[in-house]
UniProtKB/TrEMBL annotation:
InterPro entries, per the entry: FAD-bd_oxidored_4_C (IPR004113), FAD-bd_PCMH (IPR016166), FAD-bd_PCMH-like_sf (IPR036318), FAD-bd_PCMH_sub1 (IPR016167), FAD-bd_PCMH_sub2 (IPR016169), FAD-linked_Oxase-like_C (IPR016164), FAD-oxidored/transferase_4 (IPR051264), Oxid_FAD_bind_N (IPR006094)
Species this chain originates from: Agaricus bisporus var. burnettii (strain JB137-S8 / ATCC MYA-4627 / FGSC 10392) (White button mushroom)
Reaction equations catalysed: (R)-lactate + 2 Fe(III)-[cytochrome c] = 2 Fe(II)-[cytochrome c] + pyruvate + 2 H(+)
Pfam families assigned to the protein according to its UniProt record, in alphabetical order: FAD-oxidase_C, FAD_binding_4
GO MF annotations, alphabetized: D-lactate dehydrogenase (cytochrome) activity; FAD binding
Protein's name according to its UniProt entry: FAD-binding PCMH-type domain-containing protein
Reported cofactor(s): FAD
SUPFAM superfamilies (UniProt xref): FAD-binding/transporter-associated domain-like, FAD-linked oxidases, C-terminal domain
Top-level taxonomy: Eukaryota, Fungi, Dikarya, Basidiomycota, Agaricomycotina
Domain FAD-binding PCMH-type: 4-183
């Protein structure tokens, strides 16, 4: 996004865990700060060297160590690109449990270190549940080998969980053992046009009840986000006639074991929705072939690219109750209007989209340019709104450099103090990714 500009004179690209160990041992002894870097696709400045730290890139550590097609357990170097791992397990009829728009360049170690969420969380859960083991180099160079492939291990503290989502502030993840689920034998999707946001939650309940075990995604897109995606060539899912009167859209995906069964379930769902006495939707379009399936997802995934073409984006990746999605977006728009900032020379759009299945709203404020005035209007306003709902200021992107000052809106003093104690015990010299997560 161009908001964070790093400064570093040195980039090290180790090829083995032992080399990472020697680097950290050297740096820790001399109290030289380091920044671990994966695919560098984060949105909160977590991998940016803001104080002339040494960058330790994991890109040369990109080998699959082992894969068991029976259990589905994959063990890989941290520098393996997510798409490469997806391609590796595909011939074995497995998939990666995490799917991101940046899958072509993000690395599995970075995914783990940021606890990346993405499009499959509704079906397969978070990385806290899918990661079975980790190999981590601690700040003093000690190698923590917890690279187990066991699904059940009830032997005291689950140490690996400390490093999932720690954003490289406690050590460098060098190896990952992850459970890959069986690939679905059939995938379908449908896009639904809704007359009102008030219909989203009852629609979600209906879809869950009727599709049950085959439901894999339930994505919300407001009208402005949809219009921008279409405007910038990300696909056209519905005709102009079909989108008339639609306040928002929902993309539903199913993943199951038999195409005929799944298509019948989706068809029955559509029929019941359209024939209801008080329909929750205006219309719906179901993909008829793989190309249409991809084009519907391209519309949803293309919102981010469309926003980048429209202007400079202030991105807020938040968790709030599902019922408040629209209130948060509308409230932010009106707040900016009251400040005189809602115009073509300042803020052009306020949009919302995201993962209804896990309460993750992507609130995007699209401006002509970044400015201190807009920044001051948005923060702490948005963080205060999130706090009022007891929500999270970061649902899946992390804290990084951008949100350290705002951590207290989601974590109480006791929690933050405990985080500092853990940091001080593991990294007493403070060399690991300084200035990130904790101020």
């Amino acid at each position: 996004m161009g908001r964070f500009h790093g400064s570093s004179t040195t980039v090290l690209k180790p090829k083995t865990t032992q080399q990472v160990s020697r680097i950290l041992q050297w740096c820790n002894y001399r109290k030289i700060p380091v920044v671990p870097q994966g695919g560098n696709t984060g949105l909160v400045g977590g991998s940016v060297p803001v104080k002339d730290e040494i960058v330790i890139s994991l890109s040369n550590m990109n080998k699959v160590r082992e894969f068991d097609p029976v259990s589905g357990v994959l063990v890989a170097d941290a520098g393996c690109i997510l798409q490469a791992l997806t391609d590796y397990v595909a011939p074995h009829n497995h998939i990666m449990p995490v799917d991101l728009g940046a899958k072509g360049s993000c690395q599995i170690g970075g995914n783990v270190s940021t606890n990346a969420g993405g499009l499959r969380l509704l079906r397969y859960g978070s990385l806290h549940g899918n990661v079975l083991g980790l190999e981590v180099v601690l700040p003093d160079g000690t190698i923590l080998d917890q690279l187990t492939t066991l699904r059940k291990d009830n032997t005291g503290y689950d140490i690996k969980q400390l490093f999932i989502g720690a954003e490289g502030t406690l050590g460098i993840v060098t190896g990952v053992s992850i459970l890959t689920p069986p690939a679905p034998q059939a995938s379908n999707n449908v896009i639904l046009a809704l007359p009102s946001f008030q219909n989203v939650l009852p629609l979600y309940q209906t879809v869950k009840a009727q599709l049950s075990e085959i439901l894999s995604a339930f994505e919300f897109i407001d009208r402005t986000a949809y219009n921008l995606a279409v405007k910038h060539g990300q696909g056209r899912a519905l005709s102009d006639e079909d989108v008339q009167g639609a306040e928002c859209f929902v993309l539903v995906e199913t993943s199951g074991g038999r195409r005929e069964h799944d298509e019948q379930k989706l068809t029955t769902l559509l029929e019941s929705l359209l024939e209801a006495d008080k329909p929750l939707i205006n219309t719906g379009v179901m993909s008829q072939n793989p190309a249409q399936f991809s084009s519907l997802w391209a519309l949803r995934e293309g919102v981010t690219e469309a926003i980048s073409k429209e202007g400079k984006a202030y991105k807020y990746d938040i968790s709030v109750p599902l019922s408040s999605f629209k209130d948060v977006v509308d409230g932010t728009r009106e707040h900016l209007r009251s400040k005189g900032l809602l115009n073509d020379e300042a803020v052009k759009h306020v949009i919302g989209y995201g993962h209804v299945g896990d309460g993750n709203l992507h609130l995007n404020v699209v401006a002509k340019d970044y400015s201190p005035e807009i920044q001051a209007a948005l923060e702490p306003y948005i963080y205060e709104v999130v706090s009022s709902y007891r929500g999270s200021i970061s649902a899946e992107h992390g804290i990084g450099y951008q949100k350290t000052h705002a951590l207290h809106y989601s974590k109480d003093k006791v929690s933050i103090d405990l985080m500092r104690k853990i940091k001080n015990v593991i990294d007493p010299n403070g060399i690991m990714n300084p200035g990130k997560v904790l101020e």
